[in-house]
Amino acid sequence: MSTVSGSELRVHPDLHSASADLADEIAQILCTCLQSDRWCTLALSGGDTPRLLHQMLATDHASLIDWNHLHLFWGDERYVPHDSPQSNFRMARETLIDHVPIPADNVHPMPTDFDDPEDAARACEAILRAFTPGDVPRLDIILLGIGADGHTASLFPGSTALSEAERAVVPSIAHADPPHRLTLTYPVINSAANVFFLVAGEDKAPVVAAALAGASPETLPAAGVRPTNGRLCWWLDESAASLVDKE
């Protein structure tokens, strides 16, 4: 493990190894958190990269986690039905939720059935705040990825969501299909106790290096992830880490 610009860096030979290490870390944190006799909160990320991580949590670590006291949230969601192949919730259900004994009431997908995404965002925020007291919701773990354009969650370059300072969840527009999304905002992400990036692939190397070098969040939103009272760690395969200046 090394440290770059205040971020912990764990570089592994491949995604399998990085996912296994991150699964171990998540399980340890959840076990410690749940020993405090309260619920614990975990926000999942979307895309294809976390699939293996989910499967490892559902198999290698399932017996170690008190699923009755774990509440699942999401960092972002595409504004599609939950049964859509594009849904982050569906991916998590197929790779994790359906394989562990977590109560249905402990799973809080971002709603996508409102006519107006603004209403969906406010409903999602109300649920989040019910489990995370305080002016800004503080989650125990937030999992993130990074796109080739530097976006994370559904915070995209140039998005108005980047400047949101009060709301916890807002609609967002992507230059991709589907364009409409919901996303956690910087205040929530940067208030988390643990923020973990999982990134793999040579195509991600330039944006990983730029984010760790302090790029502008306006053009590279992942660079805006800087927990104010928490831990930031990047789990990378060697290809994604290949351009990082570790000196």
Outline of this structure?
This protein has helices at residues 15-34, 51-59, 88-95, 117-131, 186-189, 205-212, and strands spanning 2-4, 7-12, 40-44, 70-74, 76-78, 141-144, 169-173, 180-184, 194-199, 231-237.
Descriptive tags:
247 residues; three-stranded antiparallel beta sheet; 10 strands; single chain; 6 helices; alpha/beta; Rossmann fold
What does this structure look like?
The chain is of the alpha/beta class and 247 residues long. It has one domain: Rossmann fold, CATH 3.40.50.1360. The protein contains six helices and ten strands; from the N terminus they run ββαβαββααβββαβαβ. The strands form two sheets. Strands 1-2-10-9-6-3-4 form a seven-stranded mixed β-sheet. A three-stranded antiparallel β-sheet has the order 5-8-7. The longest helix has 20 residues, at 15-34. The chain is globular. The relative contact order is 0.18.
